[in-house]
Amino acid sequence: MGVPYRVLIVDDDERVRTLVSWQLEAEGFTVTQAPDGAAALERIGNDRPDLVVLDLSLPGVGGLDVLRRVRDDEKASGSRELAVIVLSGRSGETDRIVGLDLGADDYLVKPFSPGELAARARSVLRRSAPPPAPSPAPVVDGLVVDEPAREVSVDGRAVELTAREFDLLAFLTRHPRQVFTRSQLLEHVWDAAPEWCSEATVTEHVHRLRGKLDPAGDRFLRTVRGVGYRLET
Asked: Are strands 143-146 and 151-154 parallel, antiparallel or unpaired?
């Protein structure tokens, strides 16, 4: 794996932190721990880990607040996005959507397999690596996707996207009018097989991306019933 990736485990349950740390260290990661949100923010600021495994139910500063502050600080400083996998003992759709909206890269419900978490960690970190120089994207009427700058505009209006929303749009823009299933998008954009990441993640990202690009309808992203999605030109 070359230089070991640095992973911060944030959970108020010492048993969870210990179990996850053993698994990740056995696979070559460098692991540190934090028992609450305040300690997590301090370690993130001081240690600059590559990945944070973040429990939502934390004493004091909650997990969603930690994630929100991290993303706000990154936006203000123009720094790269820290990879984040959210953990939760609640399987409700609301928590998952809020976590993804705030910029989480993946979402795992407790109880979980430490081996599955390690696989997701490797996948998220591969996606977070600097991408190769992109080839020029096809021109889509009114839509500009500047991959080197990671900026998007529609009819001259700047569109704010999360890192994963941008990756999804850039991929579809490079393949105009080609239909992709949710499984294919998981493999190409999330670098994950469906058994590691729910296809509902794709559905939620497409829904939010469509609303940001064209709140009035499906000008750019089209659902092909029973198949998947494509980018219109």
From this structure: antiparallel
User: What is the enclosing helix (H) or strand (E) of 6?
Assistant: strand 6-10
> Residue written as tokens 């203000």?
76
- Distances in Å between the Cα of 89 and the Cα atoms of 24, 58, 75, 79, 220 are 20, 11, 29, 31, 36
**DSSP H helical ranges for the chain:** 14-26, 37-47, 63-77, 93-101, 114-128, 163-173, 182-188, 199-213
pLDDT in tens, 63-95: 889 999 998 888 888 776 789 998 887 655 666
Number of Cβ within a 10 Å radius of residue 188: 16
Bridge partner residues of 6 (DSSP)? 30
3-state secondary structure of 69: helix
Domains of the chain: 6-128 (3.40.50.2300), 143-231 (1.10.10.10)
Enter the pTM of the model. 0.60
DSSP class of residue 148?
T
d(C-alpha 86, C-alpha 109), whole Å: 8
pLDDT, tens digit (0-9, with 9 covering 90-100), for 125-151: 877 665 555 555 555 678 888 888 888
Q: In this structure, what are the phi and psi dihedrals at residue 28, rounded to the nearest 5 degrees? A: 100, 5
The two tokens of residue 14 are 């010492």
5 close to 50: Cβ distance less than 8 angstroms:
yes
How far is residue 146's CA from residue 160's CA, in Å, rounded to a whole number? 13
